[in-house]
Amino acid sequence: MTPFLQLALELILIITFAKLGGYLATRIRQPAVFGELIAGVILGPSLINITGLPFITDAHLPETISQLGEIGVLLLMFLAGLELHLKDLTHSSRVAALSGTIGVLIPVGMGLAFGELIGMDFNHAIFLGLTLGATSVSISAQVLIELNKLRTRVGLGLLGSAVFDDILTLLLLSTFLAFLTGNSGVQDVVIVVLKMVAFLGVSVGFGLWLLPWISRKVSRLPISQGITALGLIVMFVFALAAELLGGMAAITGTFIAGLMFARTPEKQTLETNLHAIAYSFFVPVFFVSIGLSVNLRQVDISSLWLILAVSAIAILGKVIGAGGGALLARYPLLESLQIGIGMISRGEVGLIIAKIGLDNGLLNQDIFATIVIMILITTLVTPPLLRAAFARSDRLTESALPEVISNPVETSESDKE
Which of 20, 66, 227, 383 is the most buried (most CB within 10 A)? Predict the structure, then answer.
């Protein structure tokens, strides 16, 4: 088979298994994304290994699938931003700042302490902590969309916290790497901060003043799907700018692009068209590609304790840190727990930081492999835990409804007496 036919066959398997896994997950009352992630593990080298079948000869195929998946996560976060209003997000700035900040510091501190406890030197231990401080809200955003909870107070707080988390984690990472180089550390940190501020300022300024005007002009042009094409162009530009100009994750850029487009009259058209493109093709490829990147067969049984320990620290660190930040912001306990759970998934952001550590000799191959498995575990546990936490709050709300209804009746009866 030609390389193109091999890609076509792989995509047939990926999309079929993703949708089947999503359907089966909903049958057991779990978010569809959970089934799509499991489908990825089944199709990956852990079991079937679809990219390693005898008749698959294209060595670039795994990279191509991974890149298609990256487009999927960009679209996912763009659509998440498109469903929100900037004003709603600014109202959650207090919980976002507290949860995002403490949700980074606690896992980093726990990772540093654990690293030194098992005999790692300070530089390696602190980098282990930095990988645990990262978060990737793309998985949680998908669960919130499925549960129709994205525009709730918890959903807005969670997304805002993820933006703070991204900024602080990358700032700590840049600070650490800068001071390792020697005398230029402070200057490099200032440059990193200025780059982030410049990106946020330019992107928000463009979105508030220029984007609505451009959208109106494009919508009047006699071209097919002009607004959809514009949305994709802006999404990719913001993704590039986030990484190249701001030194931030590309998904943060696309989320901001979605927020900006949400203010335009063309929002509904763009949302309808991109939703079909994303969820029929690119997003399922993204979720499956996470499983394709992990090989559970290579897990050394002797290091199982290390994997479980790092995963437990990763989960507890976010629940305690981000959840504790929400408590400080005066959120109820259950809503704080929901935010903490929503920050558990590390996804591609944790993997990027771990790869930087491996390339700079700050993580050895064993710790890197442990972190990759931890990322898979945190990604898998987030959807069912988040679903269970929201189901609990829904039950409490429903149980409170009869009391609310009955109180006026009782009062009216007593008034009659």
Answer: 383
| Within-domain flag for 110 | yes
The rounded distance, in Å, linking the Cα atoms of 363 and 354 is 8
pLDDT tens series, the chain, 417 aa: 899 999 999 999 999 999 999 999 999 989 899 999 999 999 999 999 999 899 999 999 999 999 999 999 999 999 999 988 878 788 888 999 999 999 999 999 999 999 999 999 988 999 999 999 988 888 899 999 998 999 899 999 999 998 888 888 888 887 787 777 655 557 777 888 888 899 999 999 999 999 999 999 999 999 999 999 999 999 999 999 998 998 888 888 999 999 999 989 999 999 999 999 999 999 999 999 988 888 888 788 888 999 999 999 999 999 999 999 999 999 999 999 999 999 999 877 787 788 888 888 888 888 888 998 998 899 899 999 999 999 988 887 777 655 544 454 444 343 443
- Token output for 196: 């982030």
> Using CA atoms, how far apart are residues 304 and 370, in angstroms rounded to an integer?
9
User: What CA–CA distance (Å, rounded) separates 114 from 111?
Assistant: 5
| pTM, 2 dp | 0.83
Residue ranges making up the domain that contains 208? 74-284+299-392
Instruction: State how far Cα 94 lies from the chain centre.
Output: 20
Q: Which residues contact 136 (CB under 8 A, 6 or more apart)?
A: 162, 251, 345, 346, 347, 348, 349, 350, 379
Question: What is the distance between the alpha carbons of residues 102 and 281, in angstroms, rounded to a whole number?
Answer: 36
CATH number at residue 315: 1.20.1530.20
